[in-house]
Design goal:
The protein has 162 residues and is mostly helical. The protein has ten helices and five strands; from the N terminus they run E-H-H-E-H-H-E-H-H-E-H-E-H-H-H. The protein has a single domain, classed as 5'-nuclease (Rossmann fold, 3-Layer(aba) Sandwich). The strands form two sheets. Strands 1-4-5 form a three-stranded parallel β-sheet. Strands 2-3 form a two-stranded parallel sheet.
Length: 162
């Protein structure tokens, strides 16, 4: 199964000390060179820079369709654009994106997506983490989530557990 990730999930999961969840769930993650540049080269002071650099299970790939990526950059960042193009090129089974506009664009392209919260939900369903504690830890890393959305996610989780 090919799984492609954008930078935000890598950064926030690493900041939580939970980057290994991606390896545990998927074995291998593929990132576009642009994502590697954002996390490792430009983000040397960010969480995840050294972890992504040294993780042998995170594979870098160049995208072929530079034009598609450039067109997407009218609305998205370089990393999000390259992630979407790479997911299409590799026919990824799953793409991990957090940015709302990137998620909408990916869905418009029929790309199956999840986000960092989705990864935490997977971990909670398998009994690896307490979901609310993990979500609070995610927010403590600077992850942006409105109070209303936080409550909606928690309520959905609790309803599912009932």
């Amino acid at each position: 199964m090919i799984v492609v990730s954008n930078s935000t999930p890598l950064i926030h999961l690493a900041a939580m000390g939970r980057l290994e969840l991606l390896q545990q769930f998927f074995g291998e993650i593929v990132i576009a060179n642009e994502v590697h540049e954002e996390v490792v080269l430009k983000g040397t002071d960010w969480p995840g820079a050294s972890e992504v650099q040294s993780a042998t299970w995170i594979k870098r790939r160049a995208i072929d369709n530079r034009l598609a990526s450039t067109i997407l950059q009218d609305r998205l960042g370089a990393g999000e654009s390259a992630t979407i193009v790479l997911a299409l090129e590799l026919e990824a089974a799953l793409t991990i994106l957090d940015d709302r506009l990137a998620r909408l664009q990916a869905q418009a392209q029929s790309i199956k997506i999840t986000g960092t919260i989705g990864i935490l939900l997977m971990a909670a369903e398998r009994g690896i983490v307490d979901f609310q504690q993990a979500l609070d830890a995610l927010l403590a890393t600077g992850f942006r989530l409105s109070t209303a959305e936080y409550q909606r996610v928690i309520n959905l989780w609790k309803a599912e557990q009932a």
